[in-house]
Amino acid sequence: MNMVARAKEMEKQHKIEDTQRAATDKDESKRAAESFLKVIQEKRAGEAYLMFNSNMKRKFPDQKAFTAYVSKHPALSSPQVLVDANPLRPSSRMEYTFTAMDGDQFALFTIVVVREGVTWKVEQFSTDQDRP
């Protein structure tokens, strides 16, 4: 095989590997976000808190603060379907959203997960109701 053909074959293989890696990242990140929501629904805030990265721990310095936040949003107690907010950009930082009836109004919730080593951690969790 000549050098040009070999280079093209290697480039093709790299693209295949990148596509496979992106698909795996997307699957793993969504599972992490879904697991986070599930433990919240099961009222296991302590376990959910363990899924935070350092950024989230600045927002919620302890489990009690996070539990209070969850208590303010009754929508979090029911199952939700996540929507991929960045479907064309699989990466080590993925964003998912869901809309739910929270009290007497609809709210948009956002979960951002990031890969830290081989683990996905929650970097951001918020609702549009948090804005002043």
In words, what does this structure look like?
It is a single chain. The protein is α+β, with helices and mostly antiparallel strands and 132 residues long. The chain has one domain (3-130): Nuclear Transport Factor 2, Chain: A (Roll), CATH 3.10.450. It is built from 4 helices and 4 strands, in the order ααααββββ. The chain has helices at residues 3-41, 45-49, 54-59, 63-71, and strands at 83-84, 93-102, 105-116, 119-127. It has a 4-stranded antiparallel beta sheet with strand order 1-2-3-4. A hairpin with an 8-residue loop joins strand 1 and strand 2 (93-102). The protein is elongated. The model has no long low-confidence stretch (mean pLDDT 84).
SSE order and pairing:
Layout: H1 3-41, H2 45-49, H3 54-59, H4 63-71, E1 83-84, E2 93-102, E3 105-116, E4 119-127
Antiparallel strand pairs: 1-2, 2-3, 3-4
The CATH topology label is Nuclear Transport Factor 2, Chain: A
Could you give the distance between the termini? Answer: 64 Å
Structural class: alpha+beta
Q: How many E strands?
A: 4
Number of domains: 1
Q: Please provide the ordered H/E string of secondary-structure elements.
A: HHHHEEEE
Strand order of the largest sheet: 1-2-3-4
Q: Which ranges are low-confidence, i.e. pLDDT below 50, for 5 or more consecutive residues?
A: none
- Number of helix segments? 4
Rg, alpha carbons? 19 Å
Q: What profile does the largest beta sheet have?
A: 4 strands, antiparallel
Mean pLDDT: 84
Shape: elongated
* Second CATH tier, the architecture: Roll
Measured as a percent range, the helix fraction is 40-55%
CATH class: Alpha Beta
